[in-house]
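re: ur question from earlier - yeah i can do the single chain one, its not a big deal. heres the input i used so u can compare w yours
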Amino acid sequence: LGTATDFNVFLFGNHTQSGTDVWGRVAVGGNADYRSGGMTIGSMLGGSTTNNLIVGGNLWNVSNTVNGNIVAGGNVNLS
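and the output i got, formated as tokens:
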């Protein structure tokens, strides 16, 4: 799987998720909508300084935790 083996979630399109943890890294080619809260990304990665959430489009992240860095190609909306 090449580069995708470093990720728990690797999508080419949009991604909407809430109320669950992703233990590892997440890559989304489109927009990522995490507005419902209650989610942790990179929960098993501790205080990582790796780019653990990579989004090609826009990111909405409300009341969620991301362990590590966020990289987005579009607008980033954090609350």
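The chain is about 0% helix and 40% strand. not sure if urs matches, ping me
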